[in-house]
Every structure is written in C-alpha cells, then in structure tokens.
Write a structure and sequence with these properties.
The complex is a heterodimer of chains A (about 475) and B (about 250).
Chain A: E1 23-25, H1 32-41, H2 46-61, E2 84-86, H3 100-108, E3 122-128, E4 131-135, H4 138-143, E5 147-150, H5 151-157, H6 159-165, H7 176-184, E6 189-193, E7 202-208, E8 219-224, E9 229-237, E10 244-247, E11 250-255, E12 260-267, E13 279-290, E14 296-303, E15 308-311, E16 314-317, E17 323-332, E18 337-346, E19 352-361, E20 366-375, E21 383-392, E22 398-407, E23 413-422, H8 425-433, H9 438-449, H10 451-454, H11 459-473
Parallel strand pairs in A: 3-7, 6-8, 7-9, 8-11, 9-12, 10-13, 11-13, 12-14, 13-15, 13-16, 14-17, 15-18, 16-18, 17-19, 18-20, 19-21, 20-22, 21-23
Antiparallel strand pairs in A: 1-2, 3-4, 5-6
Chain B: E1 3-12, E2 15-25, E3 30-34, H1 41-49, E4 54-63, E5 66-67, H2 73-78, E6 81-84, E7 91-95, H3 96-111, H4 118-131, H5 136-140, E8 142-143, H6 149-163, E9 167-171, H7 179-192, E10 198-203, E11 216-221, E12 224-229, H8 231-249
Parallel strand pairs in B: 3-10, 3-11, 6-9, 9-10
Antiparallel strand pairs in B: 1-2, 1-4, 4-5, 7-8, 11-12
Classes of the chains: A alpha/beta (about 475), B alpha/beta (about 250).
Bound molecules: adenosine-5'-diphosphate and magnesium ion.
Chain lengths: ~475, ~250
Amino acid sequence: MAKGIEILTKREYKYGFVTPIETETIPKGLNEDTIRLISKKKDEPEWMLEFRLKAYRHWLKMKEPKWGNFKYPKIDFQDITYYAAPKSKPKYNSLEEVDPEILRTFEKLGIPLSEQKMLANVAVDAVFDSVSVATTFKEKLKKIGVIFMPISEAIREYPELVRQYLGSVVPINDNFYAALNSAVFSDGSFVYVPKGVRCPMELSTYFRINTQESGQFERTLIIAEEGSYVAYNEGCTAPQFDTNQLHAAVVELIALDNAEIKYSTVQNWYAGDENGVGGIYNFVTKRGACRGKNSKISWTQVETGSAITWKYPSVILQGEGSIGEFYSVALTNHAQIADTGTKMIHIGKNTKSTIVSKGISAGRANNTYRGLVKVLPKAENARNYTQCDSLLIGDKCKANTFPYIEVMNNTAKVEHEATTSRISEEQLFYLQQRGISQEDAVSLIINGFCKEVFRELPMEYAVEAQKLLGLKLEGTVG
Amino acid sequence: MLLEIRNLHAGIDGREIIKGLNLSVEKGQIHAIMGPNGSGKSTLAKVLAGHPNYEVTEGEILYEGKNLLEMEPDERAREGIFMAFQYPVEIPGVSNSQFLRLAYNEKMKHLGREELDPIEFNELLKEKAKLVQMTSDFLKRSVNEGFSGGEKKRNEILQMAILEPKLAILDETDSGLDIDALRIVAEGVNKLRNSENAIILITHYQRLLNYIQPDFVHILADGKIIKSGTKELAIELEEKGYDWIKANSAHC
Ligand SMILES: Nc1ncnc2c1ncn2[C@@H]1O[C@H](COP(=O)(O)OP(=O)(O)O)[C@@H](O)[C@H]1O
Ligand SMILES: [Mg+2]
C-alpha cells in the first residue's frame, strides 16, 4: 500500500492558557433580571435597557435555527454565564489600573498594550471576557474626529450616534442568535469616522474569552460617514477547555456616500481537540449596509478556529454603484465544522459584488460554503462574480458548496465558478525533493491556494494568517 | 564513491520493478541510463529521491557512505540529491521565485550558511536564469503552471542551477524538447558539471548524448542493467535497437 496522505496529530493550540485572575461573574441563567443587571453594571441609559428587553422578548418567541449543514448538542441557555469581568477596578482610566496579569495575557498573545510597546500604526481595543480593558491611540484618533472606543463607553458618551445606528443593519429580531446578542451583549468596539476622514491607522479589536462558563456576546458598530475610509481588524483566541463555549457576536457596518470600510478577521478561537471535545461555537451575524452612493464594504476573513463556525458576513448594496466584497479562507481540521459564506443583496443600480471563498478541510472536518446572491427588481446592471474553491487533505473530510442565486432583474450578470482539488502526493514529493520539509510544503501549497484572499489582508495579518494555517495543519499529512 | 547501489530490488504496490540493480557513481562522472519505456528508469530515479510510494525490498544504497534509504526525501535533497522530473508538477498560486527561494534557503540553513532575503535572492536568480535563457516573467508565474513542456524542463534545470546538487538525476529531461530547447538545456547542464558533482542522465534517445558527453552508458531492461559501456554503446544501441542488445546480453 502506498503510504499516502493520512491524518496524524495537530500541534497544541498555543493560546490555550487561562489567565489566573479574579473574575466577577453573575449567576448563570437568563431572564429579564439578568438583563437588567447587565445593563446596570454597564451604567446604561434607559433606552439601552429597553432595546435589550425588547430583543429578549423577541428571542423568547424564536427557535434555534436548524438549517446548518451539521448537528451539535442542544445548548442550555440557562447554563451560561452572561457577564464575566475581571474583578479589580470597575473602570479603566489608564493602563496602570489594568490588572498586570491581563496586560501580560495580551502581550503573550502578541498584542502589547503598554505605551512603550504598543504597535506603532495600529490602534487596539482589547476585550477580555465581557469588558474592554484598554484602547490604544484613543486620544490621538479623537483629534481628527475618529471615535474608537468600547461600545459600552460609546453608549454613555455618544448615545445619539449609537441609538441612531445600533440595530439598524441587524434588527433585534433578525435571527435567534442576533436577538440573544441584542439582549445580553457585553462589550465590543465602536468606530465612527467623520465625513471626509481617511483613518490614518488601522483599528483592531482583540477578543479574548477567559472564563470557562461564560458566553461571549460582543457587539461591534462601525459607521463611515461620507467620503471616509477605515480599515478594521478583528482577532480572537480562547483558552482550551473541554466544554463548549458560545460566542454569538453581532457586527454592523454602515457606509454612507463614497465611504469605504475594509473589515478583516483572523479567527483563531479554540477549536476543540482532535476528538471534537471542547471548542467554541462561533455563531455570528455580520452585516454591512452600503447605504450611500459608490460606497464599498469588504469583508476578509480567515477562519481557522472554533468547533463550529456558522456565519455569513453580508453586504446590503443599497446605494447606487456600491460595491460589496467577500474574501474568505475557512480551514477545518479534525472534527471541526465550518458553514460559512456570504450574502450579497443587490438593491441599487450598478451595484457590484465579488465573492472569493477558499475552503480547506483535513481530518474528518466538514467545510461548507453557503452563499446567496440576490438581485432585486430595481438593481439594474448588477454584477456578481463568485469563485468557490475547495481543497481537501486526506479522504475523510468533506467540502460542500451551496450557492443560491436569486435574480429578479434581467440586466444582471451573475457568474459562478467552483473547483475542488486535493493536495497531491506528487506536489508534496516535488517540493520535498527540493529540500522543503513536508510541513512547509503543505503550508506553501495552502498559501498558494489562498493567495487571492491573503493579498486582501493587511500585511501583518497576512503573515500571521499564513503561519496560523501552517500550524493548524502541522502533522496532517504523513 | 558518491553513490553505490547494491542489488537493489524495488517496486510499487507489491509489484517488483527494479530487480537486482548495481551501480557505482563517482564524483565528476556522468552516467547515462538508457532503456525502453517501462524498463524502470523513472522508478530508479524516484527510489533514489525517496518517493514515499516506492518500496525497497532488498539491497542497499549508500550515498557518501551513508545509508540513503534511511533518509527522508527532503533530507536527501538538502544533502545534495536532485532529481529533474520527467513530469514536473504544478503548484498553483506559488510563484516560481518564492518556491526557489524557500528551497535555496532550506539548503543554506542546512549547510549553516546565510539565507538570502528576497532582494538578494532575486539577483542570484536573475543570474542563474540566464543559463537556461529564462525571462523574469517566468520567475513571477506560479510554479510550472501553464508552462509548455519545454519551459517546464528548463525550469527543472534552473532549479538544479540554484541548488547546485552533488548528485543530479535527470529523468528524460530531453524528451519533448525541440532542437533549440535541447541545446539550451544541454548547455546549461554542461556548465553545471564539475569535478565535485555527478550526473545520472536518464534518456530514451541517444540524441542528448551528442550534447552531453557521458563517461558511462548503461542499458536498463526489465529492472536490471543488462549492459554497461562507454559512449559507443549508445551509438550501437541507436543503430541496432534494444532487442538486439537484449538478445546479445542474454549470452553473457
Ligand atoms: N505508480 C505506479 N503504479 C503501478 N505501476 C507503476 C507505477 N509507476 C510505474 N509503474 C510501472 O512500473 C514499470 C516501470 O515504470 P517506469 O519506471 O516509469 O519506467 P520508465 O521510466 O523506464 O519508462 C512500468 O511497467 C510501469 O507501468
Ligand atoms: Mg520514465
């Protein structure tokens, strides 16, 4: 028998450590009192509490969606802690007040927050469990009118802005997990870029789940006013626990006339072990609204972690001539599941969308692309180009592609291309024969496969993403 | 002795293809191996390079006095074994120069020498590419993707030029080349030969040997070397055909 490509083991998840700090949590379970308590802890205005309660009441009437191409154990929503925060000072006015353990944690994760060490051209909002612990460059950005702060703070400091836009892209009753998030969301980032401002640095939020029993429900809201531009990145990791944790975020993006938002994610939540024990359930609603003329929203995601990834970053192309893009790499190994893709809703005239999806599966993993391209009757001359490529490593994994296309205007042009390939032994042997180790050979092939997506990422993220894919697949061939 | 193959038996999927092969190669030598289709030439090359699907059932191979069969394919490569593929493989999305730099730096690391950054490497690459008359747009394109047969073979020799192997096994690098490409490839190889390296030249036709002068010629048939000689043997073979050689070598 040929030795073949077979699955061995994966390298340890290097972000799997737990930070030993005292945490303040509220009792498990969910009811109106829990929501009131969260709102009170965050010192929120009355309207915010009303928003949450309304969402909660909708949620109570909703059913968990079942249409995903996978099964998972029933989630007991009463067995989750909906608020966990480091116990120390309730508010952080400066870094000196942040628990040094937390600073060390972020430093270990490659996100130094202290003045001397912080990244030179990236502003970072660091979210630890349910709260934002530090935001760098906040003052510097404020001088040019860019607001970048934890959303909990924005609710207090810029209530009018938040109130106008929150829930305007993802309504509170949009779907089961979005309703839950709207009821209990803890923290997340708020970005506002005023008219005509090109944000001079990249904005980044780094999410870290630390507590075992807590869910993470962050909420991100980004508003780009007329003619503005912002690039925003999101990163995430979690300790290694043998139970599953729920991560149900909502991200809303709003781009007005001629504005552009570039949103990148490198998702590396703990994925569970090779037998599928533990790991994060990443059930996220991400949606952008191109409200203005010639506005542009582009989503770039590299999804490598989580036990289950279930999300469809979407763009509503309302403004005439607006552009939506989705570039995705989803890697699944062992028992991991990814059911991800995008929705491009063409409403305005001359709207354009591009979808490039790269799915990589190894082990027994199951990787599904699901995408919807919808062209509404008034969307004259809408254009879509979709390319879906799957790469299989070994013969026990699966790749599925479900492209849904609904066209209600016959001037539309919708193109779809799909390929499925395997890493062949001959490719590996060829590279090894040139002195490249098997692991590096796999990385090289994967990076080649993902090239069109990686080049959309900011430089440092592209490098990190490449390394990450290499690590995740280490030992998958032998 | 650079390479010593003793009583090699090897095959694939339980089927024996190499059936008791002996060969010794010294530094500075060029050995041509000729034989009909299916005689096991590529199998021999892949066994030397360590292809995981081929199994050695008997015999031994010593490379610089070390047991070659214990080494992984990438280790063998870093120790100086290079195989030019009969059918070079395409690697989509990976640029030729990125691939070559990685391979080059792996070797430098192994030798404890300094690795080159992309700019430095580019200089080296441009220099070496002249040897096989390759233009810079080839270096930017994905490895072998959309290359013509001749371009792929030239790309193999370019890799040889970059990696400077001690033992190069060229598996039918001449086949599918027009006369101009053949000349370019042969000249490239001739410039790369020296007293410190050796070349095993696998070919189907005598044609290549007009351009690259072998020290020895071996005829492979049914997994065994049935006759060895000098350059004249190749000419005789060309005139009389494999059947004649086979029939005549059966007596001895
Ligand atoms: N992967 C393989 N599986 C089964 N048989 C093979 C394989 N590769 C080669 N063979 C067989 O081994 C024999 C020798 O092949 P090869 O070494 O390629 O010969 P040559 O290079 O001399 O033409 C042929 O009969 C061929 O069919
Ligand atoms: Mg052959």
